[in-house]
Write a sequence for this structure.
């Protein structure tokens, strides 16, 4: 559930606009648990600033690395985020005249760290990229060894080179839950897995961008003439992805992510040189559209990531010519993209958040979204957006609160409230919302009685009542 095409992975077609690149250029010029788990356009998301990486000092206490803006590429179901960052290295600046190097990073539990700040010699690593992360926390990417690019995985602060005996360059671009990695080695498209490297057997080059647990690999295809389209590879069979446009030689589709069902997202051109986000599902390329069409600039929509519930995150131009992140899902389940199903991420945040979301680059199965945005007007930051809990999730959280209660008198109070919440869960599972609301109202009355009788403290009662009222509000929306 990953990847926004912000990083040139080589062999990409130079004519294709990159919406993130365009957005950053504009900033420089101005100086400035079901498919309907989280209904697009409803609720208020919370947003977390990923922040900046602290400076790195050498053994003598001298600063050897400082960091700029971080750019996320993927998020797993545990909420761990990976990406890349431009770092300033005094060593490379003084010795080679290179003022900026690219480094991979990992963010978890509110802490962001450079995965490879220094090489084996104690000098700043020349470059590295983190492209993906699975639910085991294994990060896939590339790093530099002996002035060449090599495919690596990082886990628990340990780096493993995937192709140590290969003298030519390699790259790892996507990883699945089995730990299988899609990438390239010595100019060939490959998969690493179970201790083996398997050549995909292609005459073309497949620049991998996603791999699922069935070892289906999606990506862009290139030959001697350069990029010409995208496809899915599985067991030696290549299935082309049909572009949205019909102008041969001009229309193309580029794939950026694939989910467990083999559904693929990306962007596709039309013959008029506009670009729309697409979802490829069951052999059909679905036009997801754009947030808005401006008369002052080109139109581009990029579907960057998809989760297993077919929720899609990406970026798009807007009617006023800006670039905003979006969330799309098939709200009515009709297999098409209808008006209102592509939602501007900025509308999911409180008006006072201080953020303007520019693009989304990853989405996990909890509906958490990562990307970049402007914070406080002009400062570019990476973020994690977390959707509001659904009613069943809120009930589960309230159950946990009840189980953790330290009551004044007896365990029967915890048991009583637990049974009442179990009844709420059963009603919701059956789709019976009115009884669930009534049961929550009855629980509130019971909690009030427990407080009045001195069996719960006032603070405990207030916490439980507010949580129950929040669930009623969710069910009423």
């Amino acid at each position: 559930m990953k990847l926004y095409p912000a990083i040139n992975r080589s062999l990409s077609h130079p004519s294709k606009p990159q919406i993130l690149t365009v957005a950053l250029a504009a900033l420089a010029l101005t100086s400035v648990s079901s498919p309907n788990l989280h209904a697009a356009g409803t609720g208020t998301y919370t947003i977390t600033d990923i922040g900046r990486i602290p400076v790195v000092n050498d053994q003598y206490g001298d600063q050897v690395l400082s960091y700029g803006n971080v750019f996320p590429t993927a998020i797993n179901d545990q909420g761990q985020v990976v990406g890349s960052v431009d770092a300033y290295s005094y060593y490379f600046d003084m010795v080679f005249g290179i003022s900026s190097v690219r480094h991979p990073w990992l963010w978890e539990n509110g802490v962001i760290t450079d995965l490879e700040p220094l090489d084996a010699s104690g000098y700043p690593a020349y470059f590295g990229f983190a492209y993906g992360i699975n639910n085991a926390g294994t990060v896939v990417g590339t790093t530099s060894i002996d002035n060449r690019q090599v495919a690596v995985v990082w886990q628990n602060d340990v780096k493993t080179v995937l192709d140590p005996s290969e003298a030519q360059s390699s790259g790892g671009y996507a990883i699945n839950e089995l730990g299988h990695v899609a990438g390239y080695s010595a100019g060939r498209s490959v998969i690493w897995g179970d201790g083996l490297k398997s050549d995909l057997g292609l005459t073309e080059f497949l620049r991998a961008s996603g791999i699922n647990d069935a070892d289906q690999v999606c990506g862009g295809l290139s030959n001697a003439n350069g990029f010409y389209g995208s496809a899915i590879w599985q067991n030696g069979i290549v299935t082309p992805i049909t572009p949205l446009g019909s102008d041969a030689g001009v229309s193309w589709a580029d794939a950026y992510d694939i989910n467990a069902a083999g559904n693929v997202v990306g962007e596709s051109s039309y013959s008029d040189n506009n670009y729309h986000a697409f979802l490829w599902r069951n052999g059909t390329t679905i036009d997801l559209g754009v947030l808005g069409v401006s008369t002052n600039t080109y139109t581009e929509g990029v579907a960057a990531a998809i989760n297993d519930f077919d929720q899609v995150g990406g970026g798009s131009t807007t009617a006023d010519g800006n670039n905003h992140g979006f969330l799309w899902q098939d709200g009515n389940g009709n297999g098409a993209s209808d008006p209102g199903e592509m939602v501007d991420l900025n509308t999911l945040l409180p008006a006072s958040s201080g953020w303007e979301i520019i693009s989304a680059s990853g989405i996990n199965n909890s509906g958490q979204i990562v990307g970049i945005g402007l914070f406080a007007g002009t400062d570019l930051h990476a973020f994690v957006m977390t959707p509001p809990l659904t009613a069943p999730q809120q009930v589960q959280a309230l159950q946990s609160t009840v189980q953790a209660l330290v009551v004044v008198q007896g365990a029967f109070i915890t048991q009583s409230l637990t049974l009442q919440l179990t009844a709420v869960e059963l009603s919701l599972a059956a789709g019976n919302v009115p009884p669930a609301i009534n049961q929550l109202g009855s629980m509130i009355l019971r909690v009030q009685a427990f407080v009045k009788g001195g069996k719960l403290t006032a603070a405990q009662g207030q916490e439980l009542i507010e949580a129950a009222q929040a669930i009623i509000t969710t069910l009423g929306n």
